[in-house]
Amino acid sequence: MDEIKNIYNFSCKNLNGEEVSLSDYSGKALLIVNTASKCGFTPQYKGLQELYEEYSSEGFEVLGFPCNQFGSQEPGTEEEISEFCSINYSITFPIFSKIDVKGPTADPLFGFLTSSKPGLLGTEKIKWNFTKFLIDQNGQTVKRYSPQTTPEQISSDVKDLLEGTN
């Protein structure tokens, strides 16, 4: 089997259950985040939305992937997740269907992300909600951020990537 070289080989379901090819985002810088509605890091949704608003016109997208694997902090249905994001944080960036991001049932996208950018001490596991991956315009994973890293702290990396100075 050919080694997967970038994220464009993957597709994921959006909150409406429609299959979306990540190749639709070809040429854009991306921040891929596993999210949850009932987590201590949930307020980062506000910063993610601000990051998206600041840089979307320059070819940047935030892609949210709800996950219920950490403390059952995303128990809602797709409809409830969508409503929560809209009402509480006015989210306009794409949110996908709830997935697993670790273990044997992990979505293949997150398997690729974690193997392409291992975390602390080389671990490929995702430890908690709001782990973030910065993807360049060629679909390559360039950075991985811990849940504690806020969107505001990532802003300069996004700017550098968009300006080609990363």
Per-chain topology:
Layout: E1 11-13, E2 19-21, E3 29-35, H1 44-55, E4 60-66, H2 78-89, H3 108-116, E5 132-135, E6 141-145, H4 151-163
Parallel strand pairs: 3-4
Antiparallel strand pairs: 1-2, 3-5, 5-6
Helix pairs in contact: 1-4
- Shape call: globular
For the biggest sheet, the summary is: 4 strands, mixed
Distance between the termini: 31 Å
CATH class: Alpha Beta
Strand content: 15-25%
Tally of separate domains: 1
**Strands, total number:** 6
Element order: H for helix, E for strand? EEEHEHHEEH
TL;DR?
By secondary structure, this protein is α+β, with helices and mostly antiparallel strands. Helices cover 28% and strands 17% of the residues.
Characteristic terms for this protein:
166 residues; alpha+beta; Glutaredoxin; four-stranded mixed β-sheet; two-stranded antiparallel ribbon; 6 strands; globular
Can you give a write-up of this model?
With 166 residues, the chain is of the alpha+beta class. It has one domain: Glutaredoxin (3-Layer(aba) Sandwich). The protein is 28% helix and 17% strand. It has helices at 44-55, 78-89, 108-116, 151-163, and strands at residues 11-13, 19-21, 29-35, 60-66, 132-135, 141-145. α1 packs parallel to α4. The longest helix has 13 residues, at 151-163.
